[in-house]
Amino acid sequence: MALFQLCKTPTGPVRVTRVQLVLYCFLLSLIIYFLHGHKAAVSVESPHPIVHALGMDRGRGMAGMKFVKVAAPQTPLETPWGGPLVWGDTHNSDMRRAKFAQREIHTGLLALMVGTYARFVKRFISSAETHFLPGQRVTYYILTDNPRPLDPPIKLGPDRKLKVVPVAELPGWDRLTRRRMALLADAIRNRIGNEVEYIFCADIDQEFIAPVGEEILGDLVATLHPELYGMPRNAFPYEVEEVSSACVEQDEGDYYYTSELYGGLVSEMYRLARACSLLILQDQANGVMARGLEESYLNRYLIDHRPTCILSPEYSWWDSPLAADVPVQRLVSLGRQCEAYNKQERKVHRC
Predict the structure, then answer these.
(1) I need a labelling partner for 75 at 20 to 30 A (CA). Which of 40, 53, 161, 328 fits?
(2) Helices (H), the chain
(3) Given a cut of 60, is residue 53 above it in pLDDT?
């Protein structure tokens, strides 16, 4: 009931609705932004902090609520530290594609398939066959405790392979988020490290719907979250509890990154996954877990080790009331999209 306090007026109490509260919080963040001169920044996988405050994060829908989308800000092509900020249809991306197309590159695309997420695997791989690094050598690595959903085998094009990496059963979302970084580190160390040059980690409940080419390649690559694109720094849901290894101070952080898609050179990805898994284990030993789960630890690492290449929200998108428009939607989260639907829409779209 704390979110619905009655405001007293001379004529009696007035109830503050959810929509009014959302608009109030948003306007307040803009006022703080202009007063304090914080840099506009970008993006996360956890819902926007306003959504957390309203109790509409995982497991609770937003049906019946109406929002006004924030207009997309200007599209910068460079980070404050001089790295590329990638929009697929720009001249800069054309040059990046031309540069990498001259090389023979072998890239891995890794996804974790456990439990009910198995229903997404064929759409994920089929769409990647069409749109992910077309013309390049790609190996799909599916980490799973049950390979049966991959039968019959998915037809792949030339220079494309699919390999199953067995993992122990991981029941429950909570256990999965605690273990994914460790599983990634183990897979790179024991199997993937000597097979590919680049590796990208993606949530399997996504679909490629437009080209994702060589413009995404870099030493360490992160993706901006669509629901926080263009929002001020003080809106980012970084971990703030000092007892957590993922804690971010108020004067830290340029962007907020999503864990839906990230990647880079195999060596860089191993360092990232190992460091994040150790931070998670350290917190587990102290009975702590960051509020953004693995994404909080990912952001902590990327603050300390700035990405050499940042992908715009074109590369991690879904139609949410809080998501700004992008020129092209390239990789769409079906799971996140389902969360934005009401009950009837979920039935129609078979969520």
Answers:
(1) 53
(2) 18-36, 49-53, 91-101, 121-131, 173-187, 266-285, 294-304, 334-340, 343-348
(3) no
Assess contact for 100 and 217: CB atoms under 8 A: yes
Question: What pLDDT band is residue 178 in, cutting at 50, 70 and 90?
Answer: confident
What single-letter amino acid sits at 45?
Answer: E
Six-digit token pair at 231?
A: 């929002």
35 Cβ contact partners less than 8 Å away, ≥ 6 residues apart: none
Measure CA 49 to chain center.
15
- Look at 168 and 111; give whichever has higher pLDDT: 111
Give the span between the Cα atoms of 23 and 260, in whole angstroms. Answer: 27
Catalytic choice (45, 215, 295, 314): 295
Is residue 295 part of the annotated active site? The answer reads yes
Instruction: Please tell me the distance from the alpha carbon of residue 57 to that of residue 49, in angstroms, as a whole number.
Output: 9
Best CA proximity match to 70, nearest among 347, 337, 323, 333 = 323
Residue 318 structure tokens:
């879904």
Q: CA geometry: angle at 111 spanning 101 and 264, to 5°?
A: 40
Task: Tell me the whole-structure pTM to 2 decimals.
Answer: 0.78
Residue 133 is given by DSSP the state S
Tell me the three state secondary structure of residue 103.
coil
16 close to 8: Cβ distance less than 8 angstroms: no
Question: Nearest CA to 280 among 204, 175, 189?
Answer: 175
Q: Distance between CA atoms of 323 and 39, rounded to whole angstroms?
A: 19
Q: What is the DSSP letter of 253?
A: -
Structure tokens at 347: 């039935």
